[in-house]
Amino acid sequence: MSLSLILGPGALGRLLALRLAEQAPVTLIGRRPLPPRQALTTPEGETLDRELDCRTTATLTRALAGEAECLHLTTKAYAAEAALAAVADRLRPDLPLVLWQNGFGVQQVLAERWTGPVLCATTTEGAFLAGDDGVVHAGHGRTLIGALDGRHGSLAERLADRLTAAGLPATPVEDIRVRLWHKLAVNAAINPLVARFRIRNGQLRDRPFRPMVEAVIEEVAAIMAAEHIPAPEGGWDCLVWTVVSATGNNRASMLQDVLAGRPTEHAAILGPLLAAGRRHGLATPTLAALHARFDGST
To answer: What pLDDT, on a 0 to 100 scale, did the predictor assign at position 297?
Structure first.
């Protein structure tokens, strides 16, 4: 079966690699070498070990890349352009690219720049790293995949089927742009708060955090209405709290970054919402305060 390249061996990248490797060959690519033996802890508490083909951006060969069916780009949003540039000279110009970044911004840039088909994926799967040789799948979720311009439907369907068969339920959609805004709303309500207070997602349901989440949701809902982004079924509250419940034991990506001393994705997550708020003259004090906190200006 066709090879999948996964560029970005963080929690999501390793989760994808370990799950997809049960179905077909996978090569996991990062900036530094990783142990080839990797362990996946499932949400049910089982531990699955698998040998992966782990490469660095320097050791990825043109011959290996030429065998790939697609490249899943699973880096942080702020690192996506540089990561792709580091291997682009060894990739086929028509190689399909799947973008898994949080936020909304780099997807449009890479979709316009890359010469092959570009799909975007948004997921509520929860995962966090357990050292250099393990990842914890903390909560089952759902993945949506599609192109920003609505094209490449058959490719989206094929890749969604591949993910579903690997135990990561996925659905091809034609309105991925709207779904990315929906994910942005969820990330804005969860990531900055759990990172600030260093708590797991499920703790947001308790005081004093629940009112803070509700304040974010209120500001986000006003921005989405002004941007003519349709609300999800059940409304914004339902969307956010459903994800919180499904990923209650998860350490959100921004919290993982804070704990590891890495840069966070606060600009990719909160920046587009604040920019939209300014365009429409909306007050966004909660979002602005969270952004300022991670921006180091408070």
So the answer is: 44
Pairing status of strand 37-41 against strand 134-139: parallel
Question: Tens of pLDDT along 49-58?
Answer: 999 999 999 9
CA-based nearest residue to 292, from 196, 186, 203: 196
Residue range 134-141: mean pLDDT, rounded: 90
Task: State how many domains the chain has.
Answer: 2
- What is the rounded distance in angstroms from the CA atom of residue 133 to the CA atom of residue 137? 14
> How many C-beta neighbours within 10 Å does residue 204 have?
22
Give the structural domain span for 151: 3-174
Q: Assign residue 93 the CATH number of its domain.
A: 3.40.50.720
Six-digit token string for 65: 């890349």
The residue annotated as part of the active site, out of 183, 251, 266, 291, is: 183
Name residue 170's amino acid. A
Instruction: Based on the residue annotation, tell me whether 183 is a catalytic residue of this protein.
Output: yes
Give SS3 for 192.
helix
